[in-house]
Design brief:
- The structure is a single chain.
- By secondary structure, the protein is of the alpha+beta class.
- About 30% of the residues lie in helices and about 30% in strands.
- The protein has ten helices and 17 strands.
- Strands 9, 10, 11, 12, 13, 14, 15, 16 and 17 form a nine-stranded mixed sheet that branches.
- The protein is globular.
- The relative contact order is 0.13.
Length: about 350
């Protein structure tokens, strides 16, 4: 009898939620959500397998309505439909802010609740996303490809040190074993030298590649209408004559730095991005950390390292074994570490 009463009570609560639901609500970053709208779920916010701002409703063994963090599973980048907008329900998120009741296309039987403001702030709901890459048919420039390209263009001798580093690039654990066990390394040398030489010979310089780099932006420039971009190496490693982008320990010497050090963006879009970045509490601080997909074409030649007039460092020793010449063909800039969504803006070389 008690279990039946709990079931009836849960049904009544759900019914009341729907009856008192509103037709639309606004999120802190200026978006309007209506019943019937579709939105995309992102990745979970912290290092776990569950969302923190998205919950699943269920009835426990005693017939009582409960809510638990939704398991991420296959939900990232999937579409959900807004079924109701609940003005507030402190039992779900301990908050008096609007909650979206949504239905997943992939799991229609699940009762999913989204704390929309927090979910946008933490990236668990996607605000903006490119439907296709800025440059289609581009290929990821993996550390293995970087290594082969670097040895080729710099005409580096393939000695034991190069081979040890190459093995470690492909397999860190095997690299450590070879470093501590000279006999094991000796048995593998010929195999990995052949593999490296093949990769060098077959490297395709006609392709456009992309790398993923986390770095910083400076304050919005209202005169130039955009954000100056600062890569981690720019101030510390670069002179006025050199512009490097560092990825996996390789230094890409950029021939057209203007494409990489500025993101054109109109003020309205910049304002929307910074409003989202400041969070639901509308902090005064907007994080300068950004995540860029940089599209490159690589140069099949040994690059000369530009030097300042009073340069004292031995630049050959510092850069030669990790230097690759490149031009930037385009850049996508995000404020989410997945490098997939919450796009700030993009720029494509003409």
């Amino acid at each position: 009898m008690r279990q039946k009463l709990y079931l009836l009570l849960s049904f009544l609560i759900a019914t009341i939620e729907i009856l008192y639901a509103q037709e639309s609500c606004n999120s802190y970053d200026g978006q309007t959500f209506k019943v019937g709208d579709q939105l995309r779920l992102g990745y979970h916010y912290i290092s776990s397998s569950n969302y923190t701002c998205i919950k699943e409703g269920f009835t426990d063994d005693y017939g009582k309505k409960r809510y638990k963090d939704l398991k991420e599973e296959n939900f990232p980048l999937s579409t959900v439909t807004v079924k109701a907008i609940i003005p507030e329900n402190s039992d779900i998120f301990y908050s008096n802010e609007p909650i979206l009741l949504v239905q997943s296309n992939d799991a229609p039987d699940k009762e999913i609740y989204v704390h929309i403001n927090k979910a946008i702030e933490k990236g668990e709901v996607i605000s903006s996303m490119m439907e296709k890459p800025l440059i289609e048919n581009s290929a990821e420039l993996t550390p293995e490809l970087m290594f082969a390209c670097c040895v080729r263009v710099n005409k580096l001798p393939i000695d034991d040190n190069v081979l040890l580093n190459y093995i470690a690039t492909l397999d860190k654990e095997l690299g450590r074993e070879c470093l501590s066990d000279k006999f094991k390394f000796e048995k593998l040398k010929a195999e990995y030298q052949s593999k490296l030489e093949k990769s060098m010979a077959e490297f395709d310089f006609s392709k456009t590649y992309y790398i993923k780099v986390d770095h910083n932006r400076d304050e919005y420039d209202f005169t130039k209408k955009g954000y100056p971009l600062s890569f981690s190496s720019f101030k510390a490693e670069s002179s006025k004559q050199r512009f490097f982008i560092i990825s996996h320990g390789f230094y890409f010497l950029i021939g057209n730095p203007d494409m990489a050090n500025f993101l054109p963006l109109d003020a309205d879009r910049a304002e929307k991005y910074e409003t989202r970045s400041k969070g639901a509490q509308k902090q005064s601080y907007s994080s300068p950390l950004i995540y860029s997909v940089v599209y490159l074409t690589l140069k099949d030649k040994r690059m000369e390292i530009p030097k300042d007039k009073y340069e004292v460092l031995n630049l050959e020793n510092k850069y030669r074994s990790s230097l690759i010449g490149a031009d930037v063909k385009g850049i996508e800039v995000y404020d989410h570490p997945s490098f997939k969504y919450n796009l700030i803006g993009s720029n494509l070389s003409k």
